[in-house]
Specification:
CATH superfamily of chain B: Cytochrome c oxidase-like, subunit I domain
CATH topology of chain B: Cytochrome C Oxidase, Chain A
Number of domains of chain A: 1
Distance between the termini of chain B: 23 Å
Number of strands of chain B: 2
CATH class of chain B: Mainly Alpha
Structural class of chain B: mainly alpha
Shape of chain B: globular
Number of helices of chain A: 6
Oligomer: heterodimer
CATH architecture of chain B: Up-down Bundle
Radius of gyration of chain A: 23 Å
Radius of gyration of chain B: 23 Å
Distance between the termini of chain A: 69 Å
Structural class of chain A: mainly alpha
Order of helices and strands of chain B: HHHHHHHHHHHHHHHEHE
CATH topology of chain A: Four Helix Bundle (Hemerythrin (Met), subunit A)
Largest interface: A-B, 51 and 65 residues
CATH class of chain A: Mainly Alpha
CATH architecture of chain A: Up-down Bundle
Helix content of chain A: over 70%
Strand order of the largest sheet of chain B: 1-2
Order of helices and strands of chain A: HHHHHH
Strand content of chain A: under 5%
Bound molecules: protoporphyrin IX containing FE, copper (II) ion
Shape of chain A: elongated
CATH superfamily of chain A: Cytochrome c oxidase, subunit III, four-helix bundle
Number of domains of chain B: 1
């Protein structure tokens, strides 16, 4: 039994209209970031529960210092803005300007990582001291991993915008846009993390 | 005029894809190849998991631990649960049928991200092999599929870590798949095809994928914390260091209750495709079906603590989770009545596909009833961690999802291969499975009510006879696989030629050759606005086909 008889009648425009391929990669990335965000949400929920139901003895509690993480927050927020500038520059086809902003963003990311390292080495507690210490390192470490990955991606984007052989240009902005979305996400997570871990 | 051969339309297709059976061993990006890869790979794991189940039932024919050492029993139990959930049901009801059918249903030539799709599949075989080989190399994990600490921290670490790694890989595969389904259903629909015109399986997969994307990452995070506890001796789940084992349970069930819907919602969708075709009636209550699925998705995210009523949960939490869980029975019940109403007064052909679907309806309603009973705290405290729970969830995952998988294989095999299966062997398969399944699991309700704990190899001798009954059922289930396997293998070569549309179905996968061409249709994708527009009788079907199908139609 065949049912596909009317196929021949389909007109040419009709077909080409059907076969247009839109780019859904940013949508896919956004869905992935929702998933990634849920991983963080799980960690946050665990941390808050530990705090609510497992109080430590008074002597075991350590007040985190604020200056360094506040600096870190500022660094990341600025880097979001500089990345945005890079994206705009690329769309206007000002590749050199874009590359400069990219390098600044990568530098800010590296500065964040360096200052995070400084904080790690000056903290008086280690990974296995108690459950807060463990959660602190797990959360900041998992986030730091994201920053590391993001910085590497920015450097790759920077390398690929070189002239004349780079593959990213105003014709092909997706890799830059994707990295930018990811970077904003990582910054957003940091802000939540900063509030929950340091301010609460 | 054939689109398949015009080069500018063949998107993303790798030039060097092998042809013939070899492509099933390649990094193919064709959604139909990937779907069958999922199906066959999953079935191999099902056979392994089934062998492990047989070993468990053999051990349990006598009240003492005699067939295998106790630690081996624990490993076998853990492997059985993990394989059946993560390597058989989840990949098959989602990955296999989802990949094969969803692009057809939305009128696309492939999934939104074909390469990501192939990556998602190819994560599965290594993860499965790693999990199983851990038994031979280091000893497998011993703490059950739930891996509760402190048990999972105090059993041998190597096997547990390998278990965590493979579950992380499988979770990753599942997340990639979920993203792909969401993008395909929402973004790749053929112009002119509205959301409320999609076949029900699309809605089921959309809901499932939302659950996958929201809940699987939480399991991944939890298992990462658990592995820190095991390897680095942190104290997340260790009360001595200020940690809390209950937090693990909350996080674990935040994933694993939705996971039961990840296993059963796609099965709901598949049944909703199969029933109308074989009883020649429209699916009853399409709109209520859609809203029920979405209600299940939302409610499914807020009922997890019904697994923890005996974990010292405070009264307000018990109250909340009892009420929320009982509410889930409402949308589930709506779906049940819709299926029954679809069958009601239909011209039912009692073939293997519909037999398994009806078996699903019967088993699922029984499992649903015990589920609602378990949601009531006073009852649950009595039977928690007994065989009653084992009976409940096997009625749903086996009696529900696995029956639907078989039903779907009988329904879509002609499309997959171009040949028909043998109906008599199929009916024999159904009879053996249905009788074997009920004989195996119905007695376990009684065992649980009378206090036989689950997950233990030894039991009170008064339970011996009923356990032997259950094991006899398991034997029947094992035997039932043989006619199925024989049928599937020999029909692939000798079965009668199926033709394009042996069931006279209206959904788009049938409006093309069997098996379909690489680009799914030789011409433009058909626009099927009424996937269930069956006439009341087969005679009016021809009219229905003319009236309700606008092939290649253009909506402006
Ligand atoms: C009508 C809806 C359902 C209700 C009200 C319900 C309720 C429950 C409750 C309260 C438990 C906990 C029992 C205990 O451990 O003491 C439970 C366990 C379980 N349910 Fe359901 N359930 C329902 C549907 C399902 C579905 C659709 C599935 C799977 C597809 C499922 C699979 C499971 C599994 C696997 C367990 C045991 C988990 C374990 O401890 O290993 N249930 N159910
Ligand atoms: Cu549950």
């Amino acid at each position: 039994m065949t049912t596909v008889a009317p196929v021949e009648e389909a007109s040419k425009e009709n077909i080409s209209q059907e076969e247009v391929h839109h780019d859904h990669r940013l949508f896919g990335l956004a869905a992935f970031l929702v998933a990634d965000g849920m991983t963080f949400a799980g960690f946050f929920a665990a941390y808050l529960t530990f705090r609510a139901v497992n109080p430590l003895l008074p002597g075991a509690i350590y007040e985190l210092e604020l200056p360094l993480p506040t600096l870190n927050t500022v660094l990341l927020l600025i880097s979001s803005a500089t990345f945005h500038r890079a994206g705009q520059a690329l769309k206007r086809n000002e590749t050199d300007l874009c590359r400069r902003w990219l390098l600044i963003t990568a530098t800010l990311g590296s500065a964040f990582l360096a200052s995070q390292m400084v904080e790690y080495f000056t903290l008086p507690f280690g990974l296995t001291d108690n459950v807060y210490a463990s959660t602190f390192y797990a959360l900041t470490g998992f986030h730091g991993l994201h920053v590391t990955l993001g910085t590497l991606m920015i450097l790759i984007v920077w390398w690929q915008t070189r002239k004349p052989n780079g593959r990213i240009s105003s014709e092909n902005v997706f890799p830059l846009e994707a990295t930018e979305l990811y970077w904003h996400f990582v910054d957003g997570i940091w802000v939540i993390l900063f509030i929950i871990l340091y301010l609460l | 005029m054939t689109l398949a051969s015009s080069p500018d339309l063949s998107k993303e297709s790798e030039p060097l894809q092998p042809k013939g059976w070899l492509r099933y061993f390649s990094f193919s990006v064709d959604h139909k190849v990937i779907g069958l890869q999922y199906l066959i790979c999953g079935f191999i794991f099902y056979l392994i998991g089934g062998a492990l189940a047989s070993a468990i039932r053999i051990e349990l024919t006598s009240p003492i631990s005699d067939f295998m050492p106790r630690d081996v029993y624990n490993q076998v139990l853990t492997l059985h649960g993990t394989i059946m959930i993560f390597l058989w049901i989840v990949p098959v009801v989602n990955g296999a049928f989802g990949n094969y059918l969803i692009p057809f249903y939305v009128g696309a030539r492939d999934m939104a991200f074909p390469r990501l799709n192939a990556v998602a599949f190819w994560l599965i075989p290594p993860a499965g092999l790693m999990l199983i080989s851990s038994y031979f190399i280091t000893g497998a994990a011993e703490s059950g599929w739930t891996a509760y600490p402190p048990l999972s921290i105090n059993t041998p670490a190597a096997g547990q870590i390998i278990w965590i790694l493979s579950v992380l890989l499988l979770g990753g595969s599942s997340i990639f798949g979920g993203i792909n389904f969401i993008a395909t259903i929402l973004k790749l629909r053929r112009p002119g095809l509205g959301l409320m015109q999609l076949p029900m399986y699309c809605w089921a997969m959309l809901g499932t994928s939302i659950l996958v994307v929201l809940s699987t990452p939480v399991l991944a995070g939890t298992l990462i914390l658990l592995s820190f506890d095991i390897v680095a001796h942190t104290g997340f789940f260790n009360p001595v260091m200020g940690g809390n084992v209950i937090v693990y349970q909350h996080l674990f069930w935040f994933y694993s209750h939705p996971a039961v819907y990840i296993m059963v919602l796609p099965a709901f969708g598949l049944v909703s495709e199969i029933l109308p075709v074989h009883c020649r009636k429209p699916l009853f209550g399409y709109t209520t079906m859609v809203y029920s699925i979405m209600a299940i998705v939302v409610l499914g995210l807020v009922v997890w603590a019904h697994h923890m009523f005996t974990s010292g949960t405070p009264p307000w939490m018990r109250l909340f989770f009892t009420i929320a869980t009982s509410f889930i029975a409402v949308p589930t019940g709506i779906k049940f009545f819709n299926w029954v109403a679809t069958l009601w007064g239909g011209r039912i052909s009692l073939n293997s596909a519909i037999l398994f679907s009806c078996g699903f309806i019967i088993n699922f309603v029984l499992g649903g009833i015990t589920g609602v009973a378990l949601a009531q705290v006073p009852f649950d405290i009595h039977v928690h961690d007994t065989y009653f729970v084992v009976a409940h969830f096997h009625y749903i995952v086996y009696g529900g999802s696995v029956f639907v998988i078989f039903s779907s294989i009988y329904h879509w095999y002609p499309k997959f291969t171009g040949r028909m299966l043998n109906e008599n062997l199929g009916r024999l398969h159904f009879l053996l499975t249905f009788v074997g399944f009920n004989l195996c699991f119905a007695p376990q309700h009684w065992l649980g009510l009378n206090g036989m704990p689950r997950r233990v190899a030894e039991y009170d001798p008064q339970f011996t006879f009923v356990n032997q009954l259950s094991s006899a059922g398991a034997l029947l289930m094992a035997i039932s696989t043989l006619p199925f396997l024989w049928n599937v293998f020999q029909s692939a070569f000798n079965g009668p030629i199926a033709g394009d549309n042996p069931w006279k179905a209206l959904t788009p996968e049938w409006l093309t050759s069997s098996p379909p061409p690489v680009e799914n249709w030789e011409g433009p994708a058909p626009l099927v606005k009424e996937p269930y527009g069956y006439g009341e009788t087969p005679e009016t079907l021809e009219v229905a086909l003319d009236k309700d199908l606008e092939l290649g139609g253009d909506e402006k």
